[in-house]
Amino acid sequence: HAQAAPTWIKDTSASTASGTPLRTPSISVTAGNLIVVGALYNKGLAPAITDSQGNTYQLDKVQAVGGDRPAAVYSAIANTTGSLVVTITTPSASRLSLIVTEFSGIDTSSSRVDQTNGAGAASGTAVSSGNITTTVSGDLLVGMLSHSYIPNCVLGAGYSHLRDTGSTGRT
Fold this sequence. Notes:
Elements: E1 2-19, E2 22-23, E3 27-29, E4 34-40, E5 48-51, E6 58-63, E7 71-77, E8 82-84, E9 86-89, E10 94-106
Antiparallel strand pairs: 1-10, 2-9, 3-8, 4-7, 4-10, 5-9, 6-7
């Protein structure tokens, strides 16, 4: 849900072909801002998302995708202003990717998620999450794409590409 106009502040990412835990580079965040974490991990592993500020992350959406890497979106409200390092930990070493994005102007209640939707495909060159109808004017819409075979993404009108995780798999 939006309070004012949702505004992108900054982002960072990290990925590894095999390991656990995986930590992002440090970014400075502002207390009260929304932290959105996109995570990719091997199927069958239960990831834990934590950070250096002790923020509490809620799982907003997990989507099975083709192959063996679920895509999950978590969110938290920054407790304090200052350095933030986000960590994903899994029970065993695996291919991991994290994207951390800070937004201002977002509802800070635990009911901040208005709607979710998702889709997965094992192959092809197009993917759509399907339609949603928001209930609040000015909602922030977050999308996450996981792939290992599409070199470039073309987003729909009005959407901005924020971050890739790098050479071990784009998200």
